[in-house]
Specification:
The protein is mainly β. It is 0% helix and 52% strand. The protein has no helices and 11 strands. The protein has strands at residues 3-7, 10-13, 18-25, 33-39, 45-51, 58-60, 68-73, 78-83, 92-99, 110-113, 117-122. The relative contact order is 0.31.
Length: 123
Amino acid sequence: QVQLVESGGGLVQAGGSLRLSCAASGRTFSSYAMGWFRQAPGKGREFVGAITRSGRNTYYAASMKGRFTISRDNAKNTVYLQMNSLKPEDTAVYYCAITYSSDYVRAWSYDYWGQGTQVTVSS
């Protein structure tokens, strides 16, 4: 059993930054890739980005590339999502998730999910 706990969400003005954290427990952290997704009210779950097991490679959705950065600290069992230049359309609940697949974009590839953390960007 794996548990994921996100933190770091909150209210920020447009143009501001936030760093989300996702702490994992229950299995060897370095044995799986991690992804971030988000879900805005009335919309489906959207891929934000992913990071491989070693942290050597990252992947991002086109709209987040250049603004968002994913990193991980395997010694701390934690993955991070640094979000800069935030826009009102980034408002959503953000989720971290675990996958053993190399298909990082599709939500159904992920086996475990956190409970989510709310990010609200005001204009």
